[in-house]
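Note to self: keep these together.
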Amino acid sequence: TNQVVAVKRDAKPDQPRLNQAMQALVNGPTPAETQKGLYTELPKTLKLLKVSQNNKGFVVDVSQDIQFGGGSGAMTKRLEQITRTALAASPGTPVYLHSQGQPLSVIGGE
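Structure:
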């Protein structure tokens, strides 16, 4: 079965880890990773709009493309990819997903 797996990437020490991790996730697999059979459920049109921090935790804001295309399985994998990436980059800090500046409480339409 298809499962979400961790992919190690080099991080630049002068940039926030969460920003780098989320941008790498949105960029998708490298050609070498694709050759190994890795892929992403995130839409190719998805854009990382902003990563910010408030008094509750981090906010990851992405384009509305996160909500469209794919069935419930794809939506679940998208959330899992984002959640695992965020937790690996900022352990112990809550991360909230927004789309176009608005908190997401529902994703997809099924």
